[in-house]
Amino acid sequence: MDKQIALERKVLSENDRIAADVRAQLQDRGIVALNLVSSPGSGKTSLLERTLAALNDELRIGLVAGDVQTENDADRLLKAGGKMVRPIVTNGACHLDAKMIARVLPDFNLDNLDLLFIENVGNLVCPSSFDLGEDMKVVLISTTEGDDKPLKYPSMFRRSSMMIVNKLDLLGTSDFKLGRVTENARQINHDLQIFELSCRTGDGLEAWFDWVRETVAEKRGVLA
Ligand code: MG
Ligand code: ZN
């Protein structure tokens, strides 16, 4: 086997082992964990700010904000009312891995958590390969990007369970077509659940909030 490939396999199997441990800790307590992935600038932090504003009083929400440099996003989430926010500065690494999550997990009081959002580094390539122990990956794409991104980055869209199309308010200012992005995404992943919204105007956000509520309630129900 090619040495590079052998090394990558080793890194990923080590990652999967740690991710399984993280997942077990979260599952034991019925915590829903969502791994948000996208290109830089698609609106992951904005979606989390909006989600905090709407659900912070109802649900106990933990947030991990990953970035290559700066704790700017973590600061934004704190300002938005986040009570349990942990930044992860990767210092150059272009994705989060399970070891980074395992390291911050003890900072959260897991017995007092309903929901854990992990904001990954803005990058549509390698975050797809790294399991973080989440229930699902949620991929964001904004209407200012190309609607062929699902075709260009298929493994990210294949490994995500949900696609959120953000910046609905900017629809029509470029060649981006909702029908086309949906078609492209479903071609890669037939089962992909899709939300269309605008974090700026609030359009479509209620459906997302309802989905989050239901997903948390469902998991609690399973546990009870
Ligand atoms: Mg961000
Ligand atoms: Zn990477």
Q: Would you mind describing this structure in some detail?
A:
With 224 residues, this protein is an alpha/beta fold. It has a single domain, classed as 3-Layer(aba) Sandwich (Rossmann fold), CATH 3.40.50. The chain contains eight helices and seven strands, in the order αβαβαβαββααβαβα. The protein has helices at 3-28, 44-55, 72-79, 98-104, 149-152, 154-159, 178-188, 205-223; strands at residues 32-37, 61-67, 84-89, 115-119, 136-142, 160-166, 193-196. α7 (178-188) links the parallel β6 (160-166) and β7 (193-196). α1 (3-28) packs parallel to α4. The termini are far apart. Magnesium ion is lined by residues 44-45, 73, 119. Zinc ion binds at residues 93-95, 126.
Which helices and strands appear, and what pairs or packs with what?
Blueprint: H1 3-28, E1 32-37, H2 44-55, E2 61-67, H3 72-79, E3 84-89, H4 98-104, E4 115-119, E5 136-142, H5 149-152, H6 154-159, E6 160-166, H7 178-188, E7 193-196, H8 205-223
Parallel strand pairs: 1-4, 1-5, 2-3, 2-4, 5-6, 6-7
Helix pairs in contact: 1-4
Bound molecules: magnesium ion and zinc ion (ZN).
Note the main attributes of this structure.
224 residues, alpha/beta, Rossmann fold, seven-stranded parallel beta sheet, binds magnesium ion, binds zinc ion
